[in-house]
UniProtKB/TrEMBL annotation:
It comes from Sandarakinorhabdus cyanobacteriorum. Residues 1-18 form the signal peptide. This is Lysophospholipase. Keywords: Signal. It comes from the Bacteria.
Amino acid sequence: MKLPLLPLLALLAAPVVAAEAPDYRKPESWLCRPGAADPCSGDASVSRVAADAVVTLDILPAAKKPKIDCFYVYPTVSTDPGPNSDMVADPAEKTVALAQATPFRQACRLFAPLYRQVTLAALRDRLMGKGDGGDRAMAYADVKAAWDDYLKHDNKGRGVALIGHSQGSGVLKALIANEIEGKPVARQMIAAYLAGTNVLVPQGADVGGDFKATPLCRAADQTGCALAWVSFRDTMAVPPASLFGRPPASAPAGMAVACTNPAALAGGRATLRPLMVNRTGIVDNGTPVPKWAKGRNIYTPFVALPGLLTGECMARDNANVLSIGINADPADPRTDTINGDVMIGGQIIAAWGLHLIDMQVVMEDLVALAQNQGATWLRQNRK
């Protein structure tokens, strides 16, 4: 049975190093590094499908000598049989990096460490009530070791954006709280893009809660800030059983889950710029890929759908979520739907919303933010 990419909210607790970390001086300890032939240097061609089904081919260009870096931590995808993954990239780890990290090469040098993450097998046991044998402390310690190695050998004073999804966002949230806030390196954090995890803030505030000094981003030229969001279709309720959008029962009173819309940081509804994945199995758990446009066969890894999706951070069903709307027009030949729901046995698991495509629905908005915030950081630091 295939399982969804479940979030690891427990990663938010202060971790304890449980095992010796891998050697990140070895190139094979990295999923992506600058100059390597790896998933982040793969095919980044895009078919842009207009409402009239006219398809325009685009290639996402790698920035020439980028002056900023991106440090990416991937979500729960490992298909290794044990509770924690090994340090050999399996196809799922490679393909999710292609989907979620490759577009950012337009803005930055990409660093993505392999880490011994909690696997889908461990989450299967958890879902079936068999406990969760995954060592979350080890997963965190690996990423911390990779971060330390990057700072020591590669950063050289450069600004860096942190990018994560699901388990990766949970790890980065802990890294910011434990290793970045209150330390000199905080000045180098351009922004953190934490998709698919709950970041707690005091109700009505932009700072406090999980982060003591890192505010939510509210403008494209703001730096040293964080984005966090969880995505749900606006046609589907946020079920009471959902772990997304609501503080856990253990949270202090007065806390809320942060929501920042990458396309409208100041609030309100905005048109999104998605880059959907044009194959089954990268981030969509095997759900069918839509026919993007009638009479058109599309073979590129990415598909852009200009004007199809809108998004707004909303408080609904007692949860704060990025509510995704589809501007469907049955009269035109373009798709009226998107994939990305978590499905088991052919049934949508509504509690997870659009967790699998939290990043894809706003991917080009995120890349533009990385470019804008990176340029601001460079001006601020006279780089």
